[in-house]
Amino acid sequence: MPSFEHHGHRLHFETYGEGERVIVLVHGLLLSTRMQQPLAHELARRGNRVLLLDLLGHGRSDRPRDMWRYSMTAFGRQIVGLLDHLDVDQAVVGGTSLGANTALEVADLAPERLRGMVIEMPVLDNALLACAVVFSPLLVGLTFGESWMRALSRAARAIPPRALPFWGDVLLDAVRQDPGPSAAVLQGIFFGRVAPHRDLRRTFEAPALIIGHHRDPVHPFSDSGMLADELPDGRLLEADSVVELRVNPRRLTGEIAAFVDACWRPVRAGQERAWASR
Predict the structure, then answer these.
(1) Residue 191 C-alpha from the chain's centroid
(2) DSSP H/E element including 182
(3) N-to-C CA span, the chain
(4) CATH code for the structural domain at 3-265
(5) pLDDT at position 31 over 80
(6) pTM, whole model, 2 decimals?
């Protein structure tokens, strides 16, 4: 499996397609590259080189049990590390939920490496209470009920891969993981910053496509709208539901592909000088 070393740990990644137009897509919390594979295949078919990365503690990347190794800023550095490893100067960086916030971290850490951002379901100010309600019991279960969760993990691993429909198997992958590192991931995120502060977000100049939807308190549409207002070049796209891109992806995939095409159009000399100065 392709991987690279970043700060002493191996990070797994996958490549779809070829060419100079590079897109990095990042998974959601405790999930893996598999959740972005359908979109990666479609964007690669349209002439892009798509990179999927398992962040530390996820998928087939290393999964240390030290909570201090996990933070949104560290995840952003891992994206930059992937670009460095592959000698990629610029990329469109996007992701879902955790992956969306990771893209924002890249905008803070290395804006000159960004050609654009695809931000699906960001987790910002209006989501914090719902996240505490949803993820606190999971964190307690993973931490104090580790033996029980490990038994559940073994039972999940007994189910053959791909025995379930694709999305059922993607979710089951999270259950198959050792619960100890998963608890460390949650602890590290809970005790760090969730995203760059709004004062920083207002300085992010890379074009951004922000995809939000209603009826999900963990990813409230108000957060997506707020981010679109904050970013100097942000555009809001409303999804029908949290699953539209997964079960009926044609419309959103077309919008994402068109946005990526726009990001890779030749830029004016003034824009190049502005990027270089940053």
Answers:
(1) 19
(2) helix 179-190
(3) 35
(4) 3.40.50.1820
(5) yes
(6) 0.93
